[in-house]
């Protein structure tokens, strides 16, 4: 049996990126908490900055590049998601929103999800409740109670460390207690269970 995968999506625009740093720390906290449960996971980093042009093109043409298609597949097939965005005008970035916009409706349903955001000052911290939670609620993801916002002055502070550890623990607990339930595909029939159209007519 393979380890569950955690898709770690970061939408930072700079290099280096505080958004990617927060995503990495949330990933590490989740992995540590899973280890305490006696479980392991395989993290998959999905950095959106190199995919920006592919995302914009897909929104216009509905024809994803191979790289974007692979990134989307990693997210929708994951057992958990960590999603982190920079904050602009009290909301998520356009790149972050556009990536989740090109994922088909319903494909994130029931996935345990942890949210994070970065910004220049604490006055943007409401982004977690005013923008991110409503979006992922609409997408029917299972979002953990804690959300971590990291302002510039938070880095190196013990309070940020505690919030990261708490959210990582919550995501690990949710992965263990309520693993993602995948709905069976009604058209995915194997072996002798398959009934052809001719057979159905014969039984009519």
TrEMBL record:
What PANTHER family does this protein's entry cite?
FMN REDUCTASE (NADPH)
Oxidoreductase is among the record's keywords: yes
Gene Ontology terms for molecular function: oxidoreductase activity
Q: Does the keyword Oxidoreductase apply?
A: yes
Q: What is this protein called?
A: FMN reductase
A UniProt-annotated Pfam family: FMN_red
Q: Which UniProt keywords apply?
A: Flavoprotein, FMN, Oxidoreductase
Give the superkingdom in one word: Bacteria
Q: For the NADPH-dependent FMN reductase-like domain, which residue ranges apply?
A: 4-155
